[in-house]
Each structure stands twice: as C-alpha cells, then as structure tokens.
Write a structure and sequence with these properties.
With 181 residues, the protein is mostly helical. Helix content is 65%, strand content 3%. The N and C termini lie far apart (52 Å). 17% of the residues are buried.
C-alpha cells in the first residue's frame, strides 16, 4: 500500500467515526492514533482536498465560517474498506535510541544509562496515557460500535510500553554490571 493510500486510510478512518474539520482530523490522528500512527500534517489537508475531488468526502454546513467539517461519503466508506483490506505496508524502523545505543561505546555507559532511563520514563507516561484513553473510551457512547476495535490498538500500545519498561530494566542491569560501584 503506497504512503498516499495509508494517508487516505488514516483520514477516511478518522472520518468514518464522525465528521470533523481538517484541524480536528489532524488533532485526532496526532492524539488518538498517535501511539501507533503518525501522519505529516502537510499530508492531511492535501489528502482531504483529493478525497473531496474524488467524491469520497464532502463538506458539511459549517457552524463557523472557516471550519466546515468533512464527512465520509458512502463511496468514501467503500474506499476505506478497500484500503483496509490491502496488506499493511511495513516500514523500516528508525529508532534513534537504538541507533545511539548501538554506537554507545562512543557515548559511554553513563550517557547510555541516561538515554535508557529517559526511554523508560517515557514508556511509563505512555502507559498511563493509554490507561486514561482506555477509561475514557467507555465514557463515550457515540463510539460504542468502534470502541472494541479502538481498544485493540490501546491494548497493543500498553503491551509495547510494558515491553519497553521490561527492556529498559534489563538494559540498565547490563549497564550496572559494566559501571564501577
């Protein structure tokens, strides 16, 4: 699936839940999907325009002059289902932390320790945020049909955060063996 199709999938998916302005789509992708998906803000608005030209989304009557919400059309929902049936595109990972640790001899054990401790702290914060997302999910009755599927991604994020914490604990133990007492 080309990158453009994945952007369409993210945008149409967001609009399949409920109508949103372009800004709200952008925020939704960042805040709600952010634990497993990122999208360049520079891609969202052109994608919305393209989807509108293709009749896959339409603007609704705005409440405020510059904030017309978009909604997915029937053709847009069909396109979304088509895109979702394509095999997921895998991306080569780019993990700046692991890049630094791989060449960690150049930094030294103490600086590597600081990097790992920061990663562990970030994972703890992410785990707490995902727990809050999980709790708020049950409080949103408009998401009742989407909630079980959204929960699958929240659980994946929680497992990933726990794995990072466990990895960090193991990595710190290895560094502790290297550092003089």
């Amino acid at each position: 699936m080309p990158t453009r199709s994945q952007t369409q999938t993210a945008v149409l998916g967001a609009l399949s839940i409920h109508p949103m302005t372009g800004y709200a789509v952008r925020e939704n992708i960042r805040d709600v999907l952010g634990h497993f998906w990122s999208e360049s803000f520079g891609q969202i608005y052109p994608t919305l325009a393209e989807l509108e030209r293709e009749g896959l989304v339409e603007r609704q009557e705005p409440e405020h002059p510059r904030s017309a919400p978009f909604s997915a059309t029937a053709a847009g929902l069909e396109k979304l289902r088509e895109l979702l049936r394509e095999p997921p595109q895998s991306a080569k990972p780019r993990n700046g932390l692991l890049l630094r640790l791989f060449f960690g001899r150049q930094l030294g054990a103490n600086e590597c320790r600081e990097l790992i401790e920061a990663a562990r702290s970030q994972a703890e914060v992410q785990l707490a945020e995902l727990g809050a997302e999980r709790r708020s999910l049950v409080e949103q009755p408009d998401l009742d049909k989407d909630a079980p599927f959204i929960l699958l991604t929240i659980i994946a994020g929680e497992h990933g955060a726990r794995a990072t914490i466990a990895w960090a604990d193991d990595a710190l133990a290895i560094l502790d063996e290297m550092l003089p007492a």
